What we know:
This protein is of the alpha+beta class.
Amino acid sequence: MSPEDRFEVGIIVARRRLKGPWATHAWLPVAALPAAAATPAWTPLTETEEEATFYAGAYEVSLHLAETAHYRDNLVSGRPSLWVSLRANGDDSYAIASVTADPYEGEAMAEGIGEIVEAVPMPPEIQAKLLAFFEAFHIERRFEKRKRDRADPEALARRVPGEGGRGE
């Protein structure tokens, strides 16, 4: 049996009350479940005056052979995480845009505009799946520094004025 290259997770989000003048609340991914829950998306879970949590739904996470070193980096980081991205629907509701176990992809998602991206703790069951995938498919690639071509200092002296130089 080979390790899974895709699996579903359940995502928990919170709607937190804000005290600022521009917004009354903020949405934030807060947790991932090791599997999809048998409950409809956006089911309320808890509610206090300051925060309400919801089961936002399931999302299929895909693992890729070229990213095994990234998964290792995530697992040995001291805080293995899944990066969850929420996209606004335009009516104060949100949808799960993506979930990844690749920390570099998660970092890139966080640089985008218009989506809410948070790293949430990775459940131990997902860590085990990620480790199994890494152990089955990782190939350590040795870094080899390329040799640079030797510079020709005379090449600049041989340049003909008016042929592609700056400021001409």
